[in-house]
Amino acid sequence: MSDIRLQIDGQEVAAQQGMTVLEAARGAGIEIPTLCHHEKLEPYGGCRLCIVEIEDRGRTKLVVSCVYLAADGLVVRTRSEKIDRIRRTILELLMAHAPDAFELQKLAEEYGAQRDRFEKEPMFCIHCGLCVRYCAEVKQKSAVGFIDRGIRKEISFIPEIAARECEPCKECFPLCPTSYLQAAYVLTRSLASSADKVG
Amino acid sequence: MDIARVDQIIDKYEAEPSSLIQVLLEIQAENNWLPAEALERISEKLQVPLARIQHIATFYKAFSLVPKGRHRIHICMGTACHVRGATRILDTVQELTGIQPGETDLELKFSLETVNCLGCCALGPVMEIDGETHGKMTTAGIEDVLKSYE
Ligand code: SF4
Ligand code: FES
Ligand code: FES
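Predict the joint structure of the above. Result:
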């Protein structure tokens, strides 16, 4: 593990080989907003909110800091007009799905995102995958997964596994940025118990 | 579907987790849909979590988690067929079979689906059944075509 040095927002930052730009920044106390990132989970790169600008041989490009590896001599900017604009649009799009999510509202305020810019399509889940990945990677239970794709993609518990594993765990609940997960879980459980009564 | 047959298919792929989609495709082709017991068996033998299998099985349109009819009707709703009256064709098929797109009748005879351009616009409006193309359809001709399927 060799040490590398990079520059983030004009500040010299030391990091280790294999660290992502996000990890290097956070290690130095520089905050980058994230929605789908979790320390215990494999990098996912789903929400794109953690986007930053890097300088690479004189050219700037946009990269997703939670998956992009820090490298020696890298120059990173975590805020700029362009970055803010992208984050604002991402937040506005997400708020079309989950307009009342506290975490999104907090970020929206910081980036001046308008809650009602896009037509509402409430589905509450913003597909960050935290619940799904946490259950698979940390708990190794895979009681919850995604189904379908595109605009119909949603989370779904496997009732047989959920009935066995979820009650004492529920560790994914606080991870959800929109609190949708709880609702889905309760729903599945009520469905399962009503199915039991009928069957 | 017989669970022993599911096992056979799984064994053919040496229970390799990376063969998941192949296994699913083969069961889909033989059985027309993927029953829950088959998915559970695959999960167990391939060591792939059920949630993951469910994600893949719902992601691709080639898979169905509900029974499909013996014959699959595809009505083309593409632009060329649309201007030549595809909507009327669809309405008539719905009336005759009693099912809507995405549904299967109770006898498991027909499943109905709409598609966007089958690539033979000159034949529009087009209805395809089990891969066989019925071109220049008229509402009056539909009943005879459907009758030819058992
Ligand atoms: S339910 Fe919540 S945690 Fe799970 S994927 Fe959706 S937004 Fe993320
Ligand atoms: S936190 Fe990096 S893409 Fe979501
Ligand atoms: S639009 Fe129907 S075949 Fe092209």
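Helices of chain B lie at 3-12, 20-31, 36-46, 50-59, 79-83, 86-97, 142-147.
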